[in-house]
Records
---
Amino acid sequence: MKQALLGKTLEELQQVALSVGLQKFAGKQLAQWLYVRRVTSFDQMTNISLKGRLALEQQYTIGRHQPVAEAVSQDGTKKYLFRISNSVSGLTSNSSAYIESVYIPDNDRATLCVSTQAGCKMGCKFCMTGTLGFHGQLTAAEILNQIFSIPDSNKLTNIVYMGEGEPMDNIDHVLRSLQVMTADWGCAWSPKRITVSTVGVVPGLQRFLQESDCHLAISLHNPFGAERQDIMPIEKRYHLTDVLALLKQYDWQHQRRVSFEYICWHNLNDTVRHAKELLRLLRGLPCRINLIRFHAGVDQTFAGSDEKQMEWLRDYLSDNGITTTIRRSRGEDILAACGMLVNALSQE
Ligand code: SF4
């Protein structure tokens, strides 16, 4: 099977150039074609000899492919469906799988929420994606293809790794994609424009903290371990307290930012008791909290907090020293909001 060039580092592209009989410096040219000019075929690489292009084409693909379906929300949010197959590492079935990405325009910002796995293993009780089960790790090429191949790609100002899957459970490919996005030889984006989220998979998180300068978002959702584990099985394996102890070893005053995602449920995690424990746990860690409205999915046993309670929680936490905002919900009508990615477009 041919390998994709998308996702390869400068050093690897130099090796690719040498292996097809080109000079080492052609590796830099390849990086420019792939990551700056963002070509979709070898024909477009006009400063590489015809012989070289033919040799490349025999052994490699670019790794680019278009979304196969799209849905547009009343609020302008767009959801894209990508079909992935052979290039997915560890695909659990022989057939192809689908993933979704969500484009969220907002005044002068335009954010893309990308997937890092097909489905997810983590099984968070409140998340519709969790019901899909796990279908495979996305390669760096498949992660980058979402960013490069949506129609509004050149309008993007921010990227969040918050789509299908747990990024820290696919850390090699996630780090590789971040490297391509931020390296001088790649897309040269500031790491401050990219946020990677996690439920707290500690080994992957450790590598992320050491090898990337991008922002971090932790899905917290309940400050009490016993209650958190009822809705997030990961708590049984990696405790939130251990995740926080790890984070407190890093310098968060400068450069990168850590935020905590907190879906609000009526009486389940929006009470004074929870607010006080949140403050206690996060003391000493410069951070912010994003309160998220719950989008009822398959399991109607969860009921979201009402607006008044969310505002109370926001004000209580903010008044006690943690900047807290209520995140505006986007794309709910097309199942594009947080935790709603179930590849529904593939059945349309
Ligand atoms: Fe997976 Fe994230 Fe959904 Fe949890 S919330 S099941 S980690 S996609």
---
Amino acid sequence: MRYTEIKLLIFPFLLFLIFFGADSPRTRWYTLLNQQEHHALETLIWASGAWLSMRLIRAFVWQRRPKQLSGAAPPMLLQHIVNLLILAFAAACIAQSVFDQPLTGFWATSGVVGIVLGIALRGIIADFFSGIALELDPPFKIGDFIEVRMGGEPVIGRVTEVNWRATQIVPRDSTNTVYVPNSLMGSIAVNNLYHPFGRTRFELLLWFDPGISHDRVVRVLMSAAMSTDCIVQDPPPDVVAARYNASGVEYVVRYWLTPEVSPTGARNRLMAAITDFARRGDLQVAFPRREIVFEPKPEAVRDPLEVKIRFLERNRFFRSWQPEELKAIATHLHTRKCPPGTRILTFGEPGNSMFVVAEGLLEVSLPSGPERQSLVVAKLVGGDFFGEMAMLTGDPRSASVTSVTETVLYEIRRQHIQDLVQRRPEIAEAMSHVAAERRLQNQNAELALDSETPSEEHLNLRMLILQKIHSLFG
Ligand code: CMP
């Protein structure tokens, strides 16, 4: 027996013993007591016995129950009903055995009183019986997240208690409590959100201009959803185009969350990722239109070369390049569209081109450990580039790169950038800076070291890479 259980039982038990002992024929004063005093003592025995029984049930049934029922709290309603029955039983026993009262009259009177009370308190009684029905056939457990609609906005929250009158729901991300009368709970549709999979699906609606291709929008939205870490990745999120409306095409991002994750927080992070990825991909969310457009949208007619130049201009890496340099590179950009799971570069192979990610999500991985299993060291998204190390230094590929979502890439071959790198040393310097950082990151990942790296090591690596670039490009 635990200390808390002893504390709970000690007083009712002592009281019961005292009253029981006091009314025993073996005591000296037994014969001295008059009849009223005997009745009082017997009543107290019954009352303390009832109290002790309620405490025993609380200690050994209710308080131990959570451990058997995987964390479900003991239902308050059931506790109240059991206590009430014990009290009624004790009252009936007192009436009959102490005061010799026949109970038939009592039941008859209580029937009439019951009818009157029943009419007066019909709401409360309906709540009470609906509460019992909820206990017997529960559509949810204490602690479950449910959605109930009571006319206006739906209430979504965690069930904290079902008692006599109401089911208590604490809405998500809120500190207040909603009390839904049990009778209402029994008559409305209840959506148990995380049952039976332990996760639930949420949706985010966005609108894009019909001139922007479906594939581009899906790629951007999928990359954003798959790189938001609080979203469940198995099953993966998906994106569907739902309908046309005044704002454009309505896209729905559908994603799963587990109960510990706040839907508002997850939505906020997903929105932030979408805003970032859409900006990188030059996609704008559509707003309700008010003017009639007679000309085709620029997006639809834009010259592919123009699209590539604009893409390079937006990229931080090409920001310092002259317009004619951008144009020269853009004319040689080779567009590649890769389905999810395509191995674009393989560790250790030779390579003479680099890639800029137009849209999509990719993973950079290294073979590591004795079994050479794949260790993901980085993720690449729209606007990032990769493959620069082998192209610029002539070394074999330092990592493998695989597409996670459908991906659009622009490929730049060594012969097309050669002149430019020779003429503009700062380009090689900027690339060597990124390359050195990546190499260090990979070394650290492999050695499972802290990502803080001494700057001297960074400098040495950078010098080594620069030397290699100069010897290859002259
Ligand atoms: P390269 O060695 O030519 O081929 C593999 C490419 O993966 C490499 O060039 C880099 O562009 C890229 N890469 C390697 N490590 C990382 C990293 N830690 N972060 C981002 N990209 C990387």
---
Amino acid sequence: MNVSLGEAAELMSDARTIVITAHVHPDGDAIGSSLGLMHFLRSQGKEVQVLIDDDIPAIFDILPGYELIEKPDPERWQSADLLIALDVSLDRIGRVREMVQAPVLNIDHHITNDGALADKLYLDGNCAATAEIIYQLIRQKKKPFSQKTAMCLYTGLATDTGWFRFSNTTSSVMQAAAELLQCGVRPHVISEALERKPFAQLKGLAAAMGRIELFHEGRAAGAFLTAADLQSMESPDGLIDMIRVIDGTELAVVMKEKEPDVCRVSMRSKGLDVTKIAIRFGGGGHVRAAGCTISQPFETAKKALIEAIDAALEEQEGKERSAFAK
Ligand code: AMP
Ligand code: MN
Ligand code: MN
């Protein structure tokens, strides 16, 4: 059932013990919006724990509360009054779903989230980040932003907008960020921390860049990395952003074989709706940034993915031709 932002805030007010969770493979928005909301709710006297069923990348250790995030434990937090799932649809919160017995309030900005499995859903696809929704929620309650909350929410805004560069960077995002700066956020402290890479990871990224291929006459570019490749490359995070900038490309893709028959896909576009491709493989996301996991052997997954990309690009080219003919 869809609820308003005010109703979402009321559900939080009515609860005493709250678990907050977000998607596995957590990013700056998942972690920032979870910790930001945790600090706010704790300041309102709630007992709050953030549980994420995955490792939290060490670059986020700059965020207040980083050390408090736990993995779900069947012995603890079984019975909360409310489970809040942020930046995610409920099929991507791992074991938190079985382990925490509580009504679920889902807050998200992914247009592909249909709210299935959530008791209550607040979805705003116009928000650049889930952190922007949490910012609006706190603002609507006319409460101040502590420096801790501000740092976490700023991180969500900054990372989901590509440091205020992507097409989702609206004036509202900039105004929210400006207010968070007034509450003590120092942007360079956050960006310098989040940009850190171990030397080996940078070398890995260089090796992975050597594997980038062009296809669909240069309108798409991607890197397809097997588990063996990845072992020698120290998790080349940030690869998709390198591919995205190749002149003439509409679509960038990275496929990583995480384990046999499990291939994780990231896609970015300059306008083409990549959720349509991701949804074909059970994934989701945003028009210009989407992902999915293909449970097939590497070569089969690669072939199916390239076919789907070709079809999407051909459809777009068809539309462009007919618009030109008019
Ligand atoms: P990523 O490429 O992992 O940064 O993801 C791009 C966008 O797609 C993010 O908004 C993700 O939350 C979303 N996304 C990635 N993988 C999936 C998936 N398997 N299912 C649904 N959404 C996804
Ligand atoms: Mn996210
Ligand atoms: Mn997000």
---
Amino acid sequence: MSKAALKQAYIDNLFYIQGRFREVATPHDLYMAAAYTVRDRLLARWVKSAQAFKTNHARTVCYLSAEFLLGPHLANNLVNLGITKIAQESAADLELDFATILEEEEEPGLGNGGLGRLAACFMDSLATLCIPAIGYGIRYEFGIFDQRIENGWQVEKSDTWLRNGNPWEIPRPKICFPVNYGGYTEQYRHANGTLRRRWIPAQEINGVAYDTPILGYGVGNVNLLRLWKAEASQSFDFQAFNVGDYYGAVHAKIEAETISKVLYPNDEPEIGKELRLKQQFFFVSCSIQDMIRLHLHTVGALDSFAQKFAAQLNDTHPALAVAELLRLLIDVHDMNWEAAWNITRNTFSYTNHTLLPEALETWPVQLFERLLPRHLEMIYAINQQFLDEVRTRFLHDEERIARMSLIAEGEQRRVRMANLAVVGSQAVNGVAALHSELVKTTLLKDFYELWPEKFHNVTNGVSPRRFIVVSNPRLAELITEVCGSDDWIQDLTLLRQLEPYATDPAFQQRWRNVKTAAKCDFAQWLLLQTGIQLDPQALFDVQAKRLHEYKRQHLNVLHIIRLYQRIKQEPNIEVVPRAFIFGGKAAPGYYLAKLIIKLINAVAEVINHDPQIEGRIRVAFMPDFNVKNGQRLYPAADLSEQISLAGKEASGTGNMKFSMNGALTIGTLDGANVEIREEVGAENFFLFGMTADEVQRKQAAGYHPWEVYQNDPELKADIDLINSGVFSHGDSALFRPLTDHLVNHDPFMVLADYRAYLTCQERVSAAYRDASNWDRMAILNVARMGKFSSDRAIAEYAQQIWQVAPVAV
Ligand code: 26Q
């Protein structure tokens, strides 16, 4: 870990791995050498951790997730190893530009948004809290698409993150499991004389493990992220080859490999996508087989499986694990139903991430039967036993039984994955206090009434290593100096030590310098990306998240249009200069979300070029919002837009990242906003809008946006301006699908919250005018965000859900 050793190792890696001398190395060579130098330093810790976990027999957390949105590894690993400074100095000695080397890394975008990023923060915290854990997922060859903006529209480019190799993963060709699909089931007589059923599948592919070490901060513990890649199964290849069908054999190979080829870019289920179901079963089956293998050779008999593993289902995407574990225990390991079902139910827990009923996953029984006939039998058997239990509790309540069934009856029968997950789990949790309440009282009400003790809340959190130390080093340094140590990085509640400085003018000045520097950095980057120039003195008003109607980016746009019209009507009016910054990807098939991106860019185009505006307001859409670009953005924000319709955003985690970096929040009482406001104090949070209760009542009474539109002249003028074509070169039809929707039948009630939002934005502007008071509020926000560390969240899971204890290596 000395500087001399680091430099020597770097030069060696450059030569022996990249085959280059310093003089001819490309930026990519320089990055690879750095990555290998850091990786080498992880490996010793990794081996030691594996040994410690093996001898210790500790209960291990298996985090099953179809997505892990890790972000760049290099800077994060340097921080967790505690060698950022030495690495910087080494680079300087070698006359290398440290920042350029970090820039070179392409992030693994193996997730869509919040859910995938949460899994990554949780992996960081599990290691930091010394909890033995394996993350199981899919090694997508193509992650979430790269977003370009062309003529104001989103254009998707495929993400080729593996193009130049991935120095952080270690392939494990020997850790490889067969995964089957299709075929049929049959009855047979087992050697012990009993009649049993078995699965005769039609297809077999292989899952090969690729391991990435996940180092904790300031500890020796390294956990494992094990992602599965699909490959053709040799035995099937040869079979085809032997009968002379060489082409067919190659074709089968290609088809097998498509299973882990690409991440589905939607954050809501699409109907009937067969490949998606195949992906889910693929990674679940490999993971469960791997857990069984590990158990058999560390502990032995499978009876104690549930004592050895706590498996977390990250939403319903891995819910098939319930049926797969049951099947393997019964069909392959000869266990009886009772014993196998007990183990299964004691192994799993399920986290729900949505309240939108349309976002609950279901699969057509027909498709299920064709792909996974034996699992469907298992699900039927689980269902029968389960519904018997419901019947004894709720005699004759057939409606309830129909709602709770794992199978939705109807024209097309469907398997309900959430019901399977709840029935197969020992604990169920939501991701913020409000969300967990709504899960109990609405989404999974029937299940709560049956098993109230199963239901928990674990409010989400984010990693302060990635989202403060790595992304905002200036702020981290200031905090460390004032707190007198960097202990806060492991115990975020220590940020409270900042509170006494909130009104200290000297500290406020330093605080402002940090913020301004981040805004300048961001403005410089944005200018390069978009050609749009932002004034670092302006209020940076930011909304960055997936594009979705419920998140209401269009509400934000209506506010911008209002300001625009105000300035146009009264050119000398004093307004607080604002830079509106948007970022986020739209699902490629989500037409309205893409139209909202076009609208943002269209409004930006007009406002940014209107000489009468004189730059007082600026609008920018930053392309390709991902972890790497998010890290540039969070430190630069003054105001964080968290304006979803109350009751729709399960938690949100961007809200936490912004606030931790000293942005104030304008938000509704939705998801974790509620708890953020409680923590930072109502007086330091810009609240507006209906509550979830009010939303429910208004919807029940009948929501008539047309009347709102007719009765609010400013609102009417804003919508009419969009429809006039001024933002679309005279094309008055372009945004009609959007405006018609808002005015006629918008389930997310944008117009209902419009007036409250505008009034609240005026309070924001007034507050920004008083710089010292703004800084005070921002400092208090950071000081009081301790709760939202993912370390706290993981500590709660460990205690409430998993019953696991740390094993310090
Ligand atoms: C399901 C089936 C088929 C295809 C895609 C999907 C799919 C993929 C991703 C469904 C949902 C997702 C992602 C959901 C998600 O990111 N939810 C967010 O989770 C965060 C972490 O808990 C919360 O903070 C957010 O509020 C929630 O929206």
